[in-house]
Fold this protein.
Amino acid sequence: MTPVVGNKFQVSNGEEVFIVSIIHKTCSFRAWDLYGIPCTHGIACINFMKHDLLEYMDPYYSKNLYMSAERSVEVVYSDASIVAASAAKTIQNECQSSQPNGSQAPRPTNAYEEFYHESTSMQKLSVRRSNA
């Protein structure tokens, strides 16, 4: 490894030669450019300068960004379950109001109805068993 100018380096790997710029976070090998993680050539230069490797990682790979993304997924999931429960309750109310006393409810026609139909059938079954 040979410092060229400023924070640019010429890194040799056998017959191959790569130019690394730690200021621009690039290497002519192009892996650092593509993935946002320093390649071996970049790591060699960063270590040579005794800099912290984490300063040269793309923020996309940081723990803080990962944790914030995980929290937003939990919010979306909980919102979706609330919407699904609300839709199932609405479907149940519509089915009960449209059926005369004692008649069977129609078979479900979509995924929400299918889910609700199966869950209410299981609840009725468990109630009957506990009363027996």
